């Protein structure tokens, strides 16, 4: 998830024009007399939510007439290059947006200001805690997505199999998937990609960890890791389609589920709207675990630059953008990712939608979460773990050998 243009928002007409994506600010606007200017860099309003961000900025400035917010919006593909350059050059915005993986890097290298006296109670705890490092709060959650288990109620009913519950374990899922799979009819019981992202999650569901506490060594080549990898890989060709069946090709899983040929599907809540017109009844539930629950969570956060000369004003802005009623209403009305607020009465417009009926599972899943393990050479780690798991799934090497090789390679990345 990205969940997880250049625009400036202020009191002048030129700034307002830029906020709608029709211009671009190249330098900080001069602060009007008696006002502070907070420069804010973001990616998530790009390509469709510029006006939503403008509305939130206007509400903030009305509530805080002594602060002007200047917004710069950059496409996601260019965002982190621009951010890195500005931080290194001493020209970083006062406040900016980070996904969790990049937050870990910026928090550890001293680029972020510690936030003071933040009311953490207004946020879902797991989302708020994600932006705490070494006991200090360096950010607040802005929005999130997570992964749940989708299931086709019609297929369960036809097969006479009881529907998933929040108490299900891997064993329950596997037993149901076996009964629901009908290869003659090309109906599959389950789909969960054999990949890094799924592996670190099922590893956590089995009580294991990908890295040690200080991220200096990989720890997944363990009995818990082997069992977790086999949980994924043993599905392939038995209850789950293979690469030869098309698994892994673009939109394969969504098309399979929507066509009524897939009983259970591990995927993100961002697929709710795409499945809204599926011609059968479906719902979701928190993913099963083995020794424990652990749901994958993708979260964007808001931070203040350690170099900001307007840190207090910047903190006011980011906490407003994260948790104000104006933000919550705007996000829900425009389907601009989910707000991180803890008060579920404020989320009624989302929870009350008819499909899926069990939207409550989205928030229940936040009670037991696992965040992506992060190292400096993140993409390389993800790619090589996926490659080794794929080799095992294709039968090119035993699972134990694949994990041993993957761990050796990850440790090599950590030492370079």
From TrEMBL:
One of its GO terms (biological process) is maltodextrin transmembrane transport. PROSITE patterns: PROKAR_LIPOPROTEIN. It comes from the Bacteria. Transmembrane segments: none annotated. Residues 1-21 form the signal peptide. GO terms for cellular component: ATP-binding cassette (ABC) transporter complex, substrate-binding subunit-containing. InterPro entries: SBP. Keywords: Signal, Sugar transport, Transport. One of its GO terms (molecular function) is maltose binding. Pfam families: SBP_bac_1. Belongs to the bacterial solute-binding protein 1 family. This is Multiple sugar transport system substrate-binding protein.
